[in-house]
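#onboarding

Welcome to the new folks! Below is a worked example of what a typical request in this channel looks like: someone posts a single protein sequence, and someone else replies with the predicted structure as tokens. Don't worry about understanding the tokens yet, we'll cover that in week two.

Example request:
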Amino acid sequence: MTLHPQPLQLFDTHGMPVHGLRLGCVDIHLGDKCGKFPDGNQVLVRGSATAAFDTPMMSNRIPDVLASADMVILGHVHEDHTAGLHLLPETPVYAPEGDINALRSLEGLARHYGYADGIAHTMAARAQTDFHYMPRPDAQSYADQTTWDLGGVQVRAIHMPGHTAGHSVLMIEPLDIAFIGDIDLSSFGPYYGDACSNLGDFRRSLAAIESLPAQAWITSHHKGVVTDRASFLALLSQFRGAIDRRHEAILAAIRQRPSTLQELVSARFVYPVHFNDVFVPSVESRVISQHLEEMLAAQLVHQTDHVFHAS
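Example response:
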């Protein structure tokens, strides 16, 4: 079955156009700049019942459309993916079992981030003020290979962790459309800077996603919709390459000068030096630490008194 995206346009509550695409029974409403963070792309799958995939900031612009959802299925839990849930307080919501506690309580969200020195609680509070975060203690967890029958179309969850512990691809069958969430094919590359993130898992998920029998791929951010496998594989290769580029940059810095973790954090390997926020040191530390663990295991570096040296 060949999928041909059709243009989709409606108007938000302020009369501004909202652009998107329709792939069969799947509507993709594109957020600002194709869903660039802090926005995202809103996906709805319509059978006899309707499922919304995530509820990004842009869903607040189209509340009547979101209200048509009989359920919400989150591919993973982060504040930018739950920003419209407050509009659906009675609608059943499902989240991956690895992420469920981050949806059920503010304290769970803070643990999800895991940032140091109270910063996690600062960011959890920001999720409330900036992203309308509302705990959902009623949220139901799902496991790998869970399916939802919407009537004429089925959704299947495929666990692909790394970005978060529970991050999952939502496969729309039989159309073979994959909602790949924050495997977003951006030039920034994979994000694995929270306590719930894992670099090794992300590497394995990026290898596994190549073999998914998909004909179209929908991202939460940036790219939106990709319908050509060659294009998808090229974008995926570039996205995955960001991990190796970070790895080599960290190793080059250590080869140039033996460094402590804090010195490497100050050098910045995730965010540009002109970008500053309270969470940046914690994210840099988490990301760099995972690369250092790989380097230690591969005997590329060794550690003496908290200083990392090239081997």
